[in-house]
């Protein structure tokens, strides 16, 4: 089969590899139609993931058709059109029993290794899906694959950022970073009737945020803009979706007293100079969130089905898998806001 292979830092190629087969009775094999490139794929792409095993297939956001199921797979059948959860979960460990599925003791992230046990991803014609009854969600006909793709990872992540910050109608929310994850937070917050100000340095991303219904400004404008808008009080909530240290520092100043800073950008720094004075004086809450597709995918699927959420609007480019090099390069340099490959 045809697969995207990450063979070394910034070395992407499309190659012929063996087609995966069922290895455990709880596995399924999915014939992929669409798989997205995620910002998290850029970390191993740049060689920034400690212990990552090069030579594997990336991709933790995919939609396709089930072509084979193991003997113990319940609820998912051959012929179903499905979307995955970015991480696998076993359903039986102590973390799963406590419904902390993203912290499952045997979790793997599709297309990753090093941080998690190795599991080939979905940027390929076929992908093996462990614990398929949990790792796959069957899709109704009326939901497009372009919308469904976002249920794998970044729509649940955006939702977690908004929901864990308790955003409600009329709240003023600042979203730092209008990459795909930040934009998912934007569409969820707007669907709740929040007022959303997006902060990003890239013109095309600000334009897309504006089209979605947010106000978009540059990082340089952020502090003065929010000060003026709120008489110096600050925003009810700040969602840090860029994964950058300057943004996280700025967030403390953009939030109002007793405000919430909800982080959905990926951070891997071992140290951060947190301004405890500001944190204490303003009684701020700082939360970090990993999206939990297994927990929220059904309610998000329903919201898509009802037309309340249209995450596919963020998918700016869809390319054949043969153009994977272009997809990675242009996504990395922010020419593509969100890109999917087709097979
Ligand atoms: Zn991702
Ligand atoms: Zn588990």
In a few lines, what is going on in this structure?
InterPro entries: ADH-like_C (IPR013149), ADH-like_N (IPR013154), ADH_Zn_CS (IPR002328), ER (IPR020843), GroES-like_sf (IPR011032), NAD(P)-bd_dom_sf (IPR036291). This protein is an alpha/beta fold and 343 residues long. The chain is 27% helix and 24% strand.
Structural features, described:
- This protein is an alpha/beta fold and 343 residues long.
- The chain folds into 2 domains: 2-153 and 292-342, Alpha-Beta Complex (Quinone Oxidoreductase, Chain A, domain 1); 157-288, Rossmann fold.
- It contains 12 helices and 15 strands.
- It has helices at residues 42-45, 94-97, 132-135, 145-148, 154-163, 180-191, 203-212, 222-229, 245-254, 276-281, 293-305, 324-332; strands at 2-8, 11-16, 28-37, 62-69, 81-84, 126-129, 136-138, 172-176, 195-199, 215-217, 235-240, 255-263, 285-288, 317-320, 339-342.
- The strands form 3 sheets. Strands 3, 4, 5, 6, 7, 14 and 15 form a 7-stranded mixed β-sheet that branches.
- Helix 5 crosses helix 6 (180-191).
- The radius of gyration is 20 Å and the shape is globular.
- The chain starts with a strand and ends with a strand.
- The model has no long low-confidence stretch (mean pLDDT 96).
- Residues 89-90, 93, 95-96, 104-106 line the site of one zinc ion (ZN).
